[in-house]
Structure formats: C-alpha cells, structure tokens
Amino acid sequence: MSSTVATTDTAAPKRGNARRDRESLYDGTGGIDFVGRRKIWYCITLALLVISLLAMLLRGFNMGIDFEGGTKLTMPAGELVAEEVEETFVDATGVTPELTQIVGSGDSRMLEINSGHLSQEQIDAARQAIFDEYQPEDYNGEPSADAIGDSTVSESWGSTITNRMLLAMAVFLLAASLYVAVRLQRAMALAAMGALLVDGVIIMGIYALFGLEVTPAMIIGLLTVLTFSLYDTVIVFDKVKENTSGVLDSRRSTYGEEANLAINQTVMRSISTSVISALPIVALMVVAVWMLGVGTLKDLALIQLIGVIQGVISSLFLATPLLVSIVNRSTKYRDHNAEVEAYRSRGETDEVDEVDEAPVVEQKRQVATPLRAAEDSTATSSSTWRPDTR
C-alpha cells in the first residue's frame, strides 16, 4: 500500500511541472534554459558553418543569368520533354545549355533553357528548330513561333549587377552595424552582428549545397530576411536590457539568468511573428511555383521562407547566449556570478539548519499540549454546576 502511494505522489508533481513549463512559455515566467545550454547551440552552429563554408568552396554558387550573362529561351511546356528539347537546341546551335528545366504546374508550366551568350543567328536557329519539331502553342492555343521567347544578358551587364550586389551587401552591413551600435550596448551590438553574419553564411551555404539559383530577386530577399533577423534580435535584447538593469546591485540572480528569462518572455512573440510572416510567403510560393511558375516570385519567396526560419532560430538560440558569453568575459560580471553562487550556498546551509531544529520544537509542543488539555478538562469537570436535588 505504501509503495503505491509513493508512486502516485512522485508522478503527480511531474505532470504538474510539465504543465507549468508549457504555461510558462505563454505567461513569460521562463521555461527553457536557452542560455545554460549555449555550448550545445555553439556546437550546432559551428557544424552548420563548416558545412556551409565547404559547400561554398567546393560546389560554388549557381549564379543566374543576370549575374553571369547568357541567353534564356522560354516556352509553354505543354507535353514537351526537357531532355528532347535540349537535344534539338544543341543540334541547332552547337552549344550545350547550362540548365534545361520545367517550372510551374498545370497550364502555366514553362520550359526554360539557359545557356551561354548566343548570337542572334543562333537564337533564331534554335527557335525555328524547336518550333518545327514540337509546334509549341501560344496562349490562344495555336502553334506559333512567337510562343518561344528569348532574353540575352551581356557579360558586362552581368558583371555590373554582381558589383552592385556586393555594394548593396556592404552598405547593408555598414548600416546595420551603425544602427545596433547606437541602439544597443556594445556587447549587444557585437552579439547581434555576430548572429547576423552567421545567418548570412548559413543561408548562402544552403544555396550552394542544394544548387539553388542566385538571382537579383534572391539578393533582395536575403537583405529583407537579414533585416527581419536583426529586428527580432533587437526585440529580445530590449527585454534583456530591461531585465539586467541593476543586476550587479543584487545577489538574487546573474546576468545570464536574467537574459534567459528575457528570452522566455519573448519566445512566443518571436514564434508568433515568424508564423505570421511565413503565411504570406507560403501563399506567394503556392501562387508563384504551383500556379504561375514565375521565376522571380519563386526566388523571392524561397529565400524569405528560409531566412525567416533561420532568423528566429538565431535570435533565440544564438544571439542572446552569445551576448551572455561576451558579458561574462568581464571581470565585474564574473565576480558578481561568484557572489551570487556564494550567497545561495549560504542560504541553503541556513535552510538545512532550520530544518534540523524544527523536529525538536515540534516534539516539545506535542508533549506539552495534551497535558494542558487534560488539566483544563479536569478543572472544568470538577467545577461543573449541578442543580440541588435535595
């Protein structure tokens, strides 16, 4: 019987603790030890950085036509087979295309052929050969050579676009650095920029690893999601700044504990913001990829979806733990952590002493109380009034 009761008593608190942990994520009282497990997050981040850098060095980037220059032919896919159309293209031009693919779905499916720079004669020969062989139909459902579109970007234009992309990235990083330097404390600025650089490297590593095409739309989306990541980090850091104000004047908690509480107080806001941001992006991907097959919208939606996910993960699991690591390098915060630990140790010792003395006091009360009760009972019975029956 006693063993059954003990099992029940130990199981109930676990269920209660689990329920309180879930509720604490909503009421902001703190439920997850983000900062205490920062070594785990650092190891995961380091592994992702190594994979990303190796992918960029070994595989390189699949640069779009706007950056490298070249020629693109597009036509309604219909019942076309990409490999067969590519063979016709090679026979007509003598050039092997870099990429032949079908994008979109349903009636909006488009076949794209990307190759190096072609002369106008080669373009005309390819269009005529493809039309004669496959009779692609225009939007009116009639076979037409005009259904085959072409666009050419020169190498010089591609070089100009590349230089402007690099300039835009440099300007963004400079502006972001100035903003966080003015808006946040020095340690917060360093942590925010470190997390931002990690975001950029990992996102670009994903593009290199999976061979996703780098286009101007992708660069615009990258700058957008990096801004979102920085915004989410600033929101968390604002709460950290509020919680840690005057932390050195008290021995109740350390800087890391207050920072961890700040993450828990803002985690549901970060997740909710990310989900709300992802919904229109998913809708854009459905419209762009599944219904229309529009390449520009697809590139923009894909990078934003990847960036929003990466941004919220880094702001919760990397930026604030990195901030705590930077702050704890300071002598005054290390000394304060030691003071808090020593204060807690003394407090635990005092509590143990009080617990040891408590049974003695309780035992004296248990012995004395029945005696007084008995005496009072005797006195009361001896002095009870009775009526005169004589």
Automatic annotation (TrEMBL):
<protein>
    <recommendedName>
        <fullName>Protein-export membrane protein SecF</fullName>
    </recommendedName>
</protein>
<keyword id="KW-1003">Cell membrane</keyword>
<keyword id="KW-0653">Protein transport</keyword>
<feature type="domain" description="Protein export membrane protein SecD/SecF C-terminal">
    <location>
        <begin position="144"/>
        <end position="328"/>
    </location>
</feature>
<feature type="transmembrane region" description="Helical">
    <location>
        <begin position="275"/>
        <end position="295"/>
    </location>
</feature>
<feature type="transmembrane region" description="Helical">
    <location>
        <begin position="189"/>
        <end position="210"/>
    </location>
</feature>
<comment type="subunit">
    <text>Forms a complex with SecD. Part of the essential Sec protein translocation apparatus which comprises SecA, SecYEG and auxiliary proteins SecDF. Other proteins may also be involved.</text>
</comment>
<dbReference type="InterPro" id="IPR022646">
    <property type="entry name" value="SecD/SecF_CS"/>
</dbReference>
<dbReference type="InterPro" id="IPR048634">
    <property type="entry name" value="SecD_SecF_C"/>
</dbReference>
<keyword id="KW-1133">Transmembrane helix</keyword>
<keyword id="KW-0813">Transport</keyword>
<dbReference type="Pfam" id="PF07549">
    <property type="entry name" value="Sec_GG"/>
</dbReference>
<keyword id="KW-0811">Translocation</keyword>
<dbReference type="GO" id="GO:0043952">
    <property type="term" value="P:protein transport by the Sec complex"/>
</dbReference>
<dbReference type="GO" id="GO:0065002">
    <property type="term" value="P:intracellular protein transmembrane transport"/>
</dbReference>
<dbReference type="InterPro" id="IPR005665">
    <property type="entry name" value="SecF_bac"/>
</dbReference>
<keyword id="KW-0812">Transmembrane</keyword>
<feature type="region of interest" description="Disordered">
    <location>
        <begin position="1"/>
        <end position="22"/>
    </location>
</feature>
<comment type="similarity">
    <text>Belongs to the SecD/SecF family. SecF subfamily.</text>
</comment>
<feature type="region of interest" description="Disordered">
    <location>
        <begin position="343"/>
        <end position="390"/>
    </location>
</feature>
<feature type="transmembrane region" description="Helical">
    <location>
        <begin position="40"/>
        <end position="58"/>
    </location>
</feature>
<feature type="compositionally biased region" description="Polar residues">
    <location>
        <begin position="1"/>
        <end position="10"/>
    </location>
</feature>
<dbReference type="GO" id="GO:0005886">
    <property type="term" value="C:plasma membrane"/>
</dbReference>
<dbReference type="Pfam" id="PF02355">
    <property type="entry name" value="SecD_SecF_C"/>
</dbReference>
<comment type="function">
    <text>Part of the Sec protein translocase complex. Interacts with the SecYEG preprotein conducting channel. SecDF uses the proton motive force (PMF) to complete protein translocation after the ATP-dependent function of SecA.</text>
</comment>
<dbReference type="GO" id="GO:0015450">
    <property type="term" value="F:protein-transporting ATPase activity"/>
</dbReference>
<feature type="compositionally biased region" description="Acidic residues">
    <location>
        <begin position="350"/>
        <end position="359"/>
    </location>
</feature>
<feature type="transmembrane region" description="Helical">
    <location>
        <begin position="301"/>
        <end position="324"/>
    </location>
</feature>
<keyword id="KW-0472">Membrane</keyword>
<dbReference type="InterPro" id="IPR022813">
    <property type="entry name" value="SecD/SecF_arch_bac"/>
</dbReference>
<dbReference type="GO" id="GO:0006605">
    <property type="term" value="P:protein targeting"/>
</dbReference>
<dbReference type="InterPro" id="IPR022645">
    <property type="entry name" value="SecD/SecF_bac"/>
</dbReference>
<feature type="transmembrane region" description="Helical">
    <location>
        <begin position="216"/>
        <end position="237"/>
    </location>
</feature>
<feature type="transmembrane region" description="Helical">
    <location>
        <begin position="165"/>
        <end position="182"/>
    </location>
</feature>
